[in-house]
Design a protein that fits this description.
This protein is of the alpha/beta class and 473 residues long. It has two domains: 149 residues, Cobalamin-binding domain (Rossmann fold), CATH 3.40.50.280; 239 residues, Alpha-Beta Barrel (TIM Barrel). The chain has 20 helices and 17 strands. The strands form four sheets. The protein has a seven-stranded parallel sheet with strand order 7-10-11-12-13-14-17. A six-stranded mixed sheet has the order 2-1-3-4-5-6, sandwiched between helices. Helix 11 crosses helix 12 and helix 12 packs parallel to helix 13. The radius of gyration is 22 Å and the shape is globular.
Length: 473
Amino acid sequence: MSKVLLINTNTEKSPYPVPPLGLCIIASVIKNGHEVMVYDGTFDEGNSLIGLLSDFKPDYIGATIRNIDDMDVVNPTSYIESIKRKFINPILESGNASLILGGSGFSILPKFFLDHYSSDYGVAGEGETIFPDLLSCLDQGGDPSTVPGVLTRDNAGGMPHRTFDMMHLPFSEIDRKIDYSPYRGRGSYPIQTKRGCAHRCVYCTYNRIEGCRYRKRHPAHIADEIEQAQQRLGPLTFEFVDSTFNDPSGHAEAICRELAGRKLGLRLRTMGINPCNASSDLFDLMCSSGFTQIDCTPDTASPHMLKSLKKNFTLSDLIRNAKLVREFDMPTMWFFIFGGPGETEETIRETFAFIDSYVRGKDMVHMTCGLRIYPWTDLHRLALEEKIIEPDDTLADARFYFSKELGKDKLISMINEASRIRPNCVPVAETAPSPEMMSEAVRMRDEMRLNEPMFRTLLRLRYRMLGKEMPLQ
């Protein structure tokens, strides 16, 4: 039986650490045919990797690359070289194990990473089917280049889609594969309810990584995973990590009904509430099933920019969503991106008019300047047409799109000014709170016995630093 070591190379812990969901699902898929070990580098950061490689002596090493950089246009941080130094170099120096790359970051830039990390093979997109097929081929001495979905340095130009049947997705059982204790204080237990995204936002890579067709898990299967994890770990927060939780219409409602019926006393949160499918029924079900926080990511509230970014909802949909947040008193983090194609001072004023009118002062607004350009997106094609980037640019170094009408400096100045007069609006430079701010937030939560989402406590501190009190509504 061959030995497989799966390595999480993501060491980013701000604003909170993210458990390696995909890697642990892969471990569940291949556990019957291989001796599998998962190494989580989030907190160890490669320090014990050399010793582990020596002791375990894997035949195959799968290394996942989650993020390329932090997408911060003001103070950008690339993860490429730190991953190479902490993880890839020790792997290459350790012996004869085949190195196989995967993960969302790899899938965006497969040829670059295969070359830069001198990897033998790559698995682009979903690995639950491709990775086991590749291991079987290698075990039998076959030709890996014949396995659909496997990329090599000689054949990494395209990314054929092979998708996994989500109805048979195994439970990740993250806490049984890694030490979950460091995540309990600040992180959440990730749950995926489906894959794929039918929308075509100009900057987004989800279509390329997961495909354009929704593939759903059964609500009872999702509830079983959550219930079993809570039985093992006790009370904790579960986070639905789909690109948009309430797409397609009806799936999120069915999940909430299943969870509410089991009366598990859950704490739930989710990213990506789509305003197009927001409804009183959805919010009522989310409250009854245990939701304590949501993220809403409209990116803009300008009608012109909604069309420019190719959003599937209107300003009226967005206003309805904001009213539902108020009606159900749902703690919400809002996310807006400024500077896309056609952005002007007027469209920015339209977005802030929405924020001022409909977003509560006790809810946080994240503001990002500039759009990160990724290969094969509509934004990439536009940036080439406007000669913002060259055709041979790998985009491994972060490149950002700024509307011609504003430019980078003007845009950053406008956003910074907006944050000074709106305490709940946080510019990208403050998105990751400092260690000192996090320590103060923890102390405040203990002293005041706060059970609110962490972002609310951080907002309290920001209001205090600006000499103001956070509003109750």
